[in-house]
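Today's session is about reading a structure prediction critically. Students often jump straight to the picture, but the first step is always the sequence itself: look for stretches that repeat, for charged clusters, for runs of hydrophobic residues. Only then move on to the predicted structure, which in these notes is written as discrete structure tokens rather than atom positions. Here is the chain we will use throughout the hour.
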Amino acid sequence: MVPYRSHRKPAQRGRSWSSRLAVLTAAAGAAAALSPAVPAGARPADPGAAGDRAAGSVGTRIDKLYEQAEAATERYNAAKERAARLQRQVEYAQENAARKQERVNRLRNALASVAGAQYRSGGIDPSIALMLTEDPDGYLDKASTLDRIGSRQEEKLRQLRGAERALRQQRAEAGAKLRLLEHERAERKRQKQAVLKKLDAARELTGELSPAERARRERASRAGGRSVAALPGGTEEASSQRAAAAVAAARSAVGRPYVWGATGPGSFDCSGLTQWAYGRAGVAIPRTSQEQRSAGRQVPMSQARPGDLVVYRDDASHVGMYVGGGQVVHAPHPGAPVRYDRADMMPVSSVTRP
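Below is the predicted structure for this chain, in token form.
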């Protein structure tokens, strides 16, 4: 009989499996000890990747807060403008009410004097007075005069009633406008608080950046870090002499600080700068960027000329002035002074030629 032989290879002599595993584990531990620690998600060849991403994330959040603050600033400006118009309307309505009150007082005094005269005349029945009089013709003349006095009194009474109705209506109108004014004042206060909240949050986030990152953000434009020339060129001509004067005014403001709600001459927000620049040229344009979007003829960006207003974002919450060479002058955000930037630094909503 042939003896049975197993087809399995015989176990190798030497080290056992347990000893070999111990050796491999020790080798892996030594390699780990010699290798530098790599943050999760970062590539070993790019040790600063996590820091760069963190700085970029903070920068994106700061930009978003500035964008929200700018939108709230324009809402604040709009509420302030509405409140100013309502204030003038309230004052006008109150002045009208005061004049109508004076007229009512005059009519009342005139009626009171006529009534007093009639009372002092005795109020005798006309038929008895005619029988007792020694001068019937004279009495009839007097009676006719009294009739005319009575008809005039009736007319004054009608005028008084009309004047009192007009006074009540004017007072109601003044009261309604005053309530609207209080509403706009409250809205302006809410928008101010919203602006300050966003700006405070942006300042806190800016403090999380390194000095180098803060310096880089300060140098960078709003166009994703693309820098621009200090003195832009361009050969385009302004659409008018007044537009050229507005461009000159906007250029003269470069370097002045951004202050939300400011309209110059020492500081500006975005729409405050464009309104001030056109005001220097003798042209009145609305206060807010939303209103400025409709303050003239709209043209394509490809046909923009110096002096045109470039309005950004779907909500028209930012505006700059095109100055030629593919660039605008604008007031960017707190901490960034009035400066030149590329006209395509953010999505363009419209281009308006005042």
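Discussion point for the tutorial: The CA atoms of residues 42 and 51 lie 10 Å apart.
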